[in-house]
Amino acid sequence: MRQLARRGFVAGAAGVVAGVVAGVTAAGDAVAAPRQGSARHGVPSRQDAHGRHVARRELRGMWVATVANVDWPSAPGLSAAQQQAELIAYLDEAVERRLNAVIFQVRPTADALWPSPYEPWAQYLTGVQGQDPGWDPLGTAVREAHRRGLELHAWFNPYRVANHTDLSKLVATHPARLHPEWVLPYGGKLYYNPGLPEVRRFVQDAMLDAVRRYDIDAVHWDDYFYPYPVAGQVFDDDATYAKYGAGFPDKAAWRRDNTDRLVREMATRIKAVKKNVQFGISPFGVWRNVATDPLGSDTKAGVQTYDDLHADTRGWIKKGWIDYICPQIYWNIGFAAADYAKLLPWWDEVVRGTGVDLFIGEALYKAGDPAQPAAWQDPAELSRHIDLAADYDQVRGHVYFSGKDVVTDRAGTMARVVADHYRNRVRPPR
């Protein structure tokens, strides 16, 4: 959904979604009264066998995006000491806001923020792809997060290779240059072809290197599988479909199977390496509209993950392939085409009885943005989201995009969330 990773949260939810969600805003901010002991009272709670309220474990997280220096580092080419100081500042901010998890982007564009034997150092560190920054960002992030009582979820993008289409701009040793047959241009970017078995195996190997070497708490993927549709452009995988697509009713079904294979195989391989490492995915907030599928949500979104990104997010939950789902419900309560108050219960029902944890991705970046609907000018909008979520017992936490918005908090929205709901620190669910 994002043009640049979780700027994609910006370009995705704010840019793509603004263009693809049919409809205009509705202020509607009425919510149901909270349960006794709900998040409105400062600490989510439950009653024990003796009727006493005890703190309920929940995830309180923030994404820290590295692609195009969205959040960190603030610019390429900073010294190692400056980069470390900025990273530590984000971790300290998480503690100050009484969060308990940081989702740190460590593989933004088929590269790495650790000394990977598979892929080059990310250019967002030094300004030069493949250049050693002189320190280990992922190793430092894991160590310093754990010192502060924070979980560190390592965020990987499986298929994006570059935010341009010129292979010659990649470092000479880049796997995409060594295997140009793996790569397809689309929408002004380069992607690995998800239909190639060797690609799926390679990207899994590259990500699993971090799982083996570091004490990460989770492997985290966002919403990029097959790329978001671009008008007038074709993702040209016809030759791959001709080679591997026999037995499927159409290309869309074959593509969904490719994505299913990536998720299922990665889930199995993560647990084989380290059983305690979680596997979580943060998809675009709409699986399918009810007009498309009776199992879908009461929405009118122009993008549906099942149909357009070939990602059956609902199916992955029902099959138990993932440990948590964190849908990006990046719309306000009452938004006509994709109402937060309608999507929240839909996801709550989907995960019920599956053992998959449900966390909600929150669009903090919209708060106070004058280009956003009126609801986002009210500092209490996200606090109302958490009030509403307290009435759905499958919701086990919230994650905020993105780190710089947690820090700057231009509308005081994050401060309101903390004051209303995060008065004390709590432990994550697992």
Shape: globular
Poorly predicted parts:
1-43, 47-53
Count of helical regions = 14
Tell me the helix content. Answer: 25-40%
Please explain how this structure is put together.
Helix 2 (80-96) runs parallel beside helix 4 (137-147), helix 6 (197-213) runs parallel beside helix 8 (251-273) and helix 12 (381-389) packs parallel to helix 14 (413-421). The protein has 430 residues and is α/β, with parallel strands linked by helices. It is globular, with a radius of gyration of 21 Å. Strand 7 and strand 8 form a beta hairpin. It has 14 helices and 13 strands. The protein is 33% helix and 13% strand. The protein has helices at 7-20, 80-96, 123-126, 137-147, 175-178, 197-213, 238-244, 251-273, 305-308, 313-318, 340-351, 381-389, 403-408, 413-421, and strands spanning 45-47, 53-55, 59-64, 101-107, 151-156, 160-162, 183-186, 189-192, 218-221, 278-281, 324-325, 357-362, 395-400. The chain has one domain (7-421): Glycosidases (TIM Barrel, Alpha-Beta Barrel). An eight-stranded parallel barrel has the order 3-4-5-9-10-11-12-13, surrounded by six helices. Mean pLDDT is 90; it is low at 1-43 and 47-53.
Distinctive features:
single chain; 430 residues; alpha/beta; TIM Barrel; eight-stranded parallel barrel; 13% strand; disordered N terminus
Strand-helix topology:
Layout: H1 7-20, E1 45-47, E2 53-55, E3 59-64, H2 80-96, E4 101-107, H3 123-126, H4 137-147, E5 151-156, E6 160-162, H5 175-178, E7 183-186, E8 189-192, H6 197-213, E9 218-221, H7 238-244, H8 251-273, E10 278-281, H9 305-308, H10 313-318, E11 324-325, H11 340-351, E12 357-362, H12 381-389, E13 395-400, H13 403-408, H14 413-421
Parallel strand pairs: 3-4, 3-13, 4-5, 5-9, 9-10, 10-11, 11-12, 12-13
Antiparallel strand pairs: 1-2, 6-8, 7-8
Helix pairs in contact: 2-4, 6-8, 12-14
